[in-house]
Design goal:
4 helices, two-stranded antiparallel ribbon, single chain, paralog of FGE (formylglycine-generating enzyme), 21% helix, alpha+beta
Length: 168
């Protein structure tokens, strides 16, 4: 299981002309802290905070479940289920990036933490998120625990939501 990088997502967009939900809306959510969420015009996968460009080897963010599914169809991969996510991260002993101010290169830190990962969904309008993000701490939104379950709808993107894939 690997986090999809900005470079990999860029290949998908270049090859297909795909536009993400955030690009189609012209805005997206930008989480500044656990408690502060803004709607920001022109925030998308290229500029997750609406201003600064994504780094090529960071996990792609500002993508929705719909965007992740489109990428998976193109790449011949699939999203893990919530359970598969936790099984596949069990032996990832790299540092968990939480309580930080920035997303880190996907190859340098554990998949757990860094960004929330969209998981496969079998319920309409309920998309599980796994792993937590760089904004999480043990006191708040401790998503780095399998028992902590949260979800989003299929259209929501955010500066700290990305996805990882499994081979079919």
């Amino acid at each position: 299981m690997t986090s999809v990088s900005v470079t990999e997502f860029e290949s998908f967009v270049s090859n297909t002309g795909y536009k993400t939900d955030a690009e189609n809306y012209g805005w997206s959510y930008v989480q500044q802290s656990v408690f502060t969420v803004d709607t920001v015009h022109h925030a998308d996968w290229r500029k997750p905070d609406g201003v600064h460009p994504s780094k090529p080897e960071d996990p792609v963010t500002q993508v929705s479940y719909n965007d992740a599914i489109a990428y998976c169809k193109w790449a011949g991969t699939r999203l893990p289920t919530y359970s598969e996510y936790w099984v596949n991260t069990k032996h990832d002993n790299r540092r968990i990036n939480t309580e930080s101010m920035a997303i880190e290169n996907r190859d340098r830190v554990s998949i757990i933490g860094n960004v929330w990962e969209l998981c496969a969904s079998d319920l309409p309008n309920v998309v599980p998120l796994a792993g937590g993000s760089y904004l999480c701490s043990k006191k708040m939104c401790n998503g780095t625990s399998k028992e902590k379950k949260i979800s989003v709808d299929p259209f929501t993107a955010n500066r700290h939501i990305g996805f990882c894939v499994l081979d079919n």
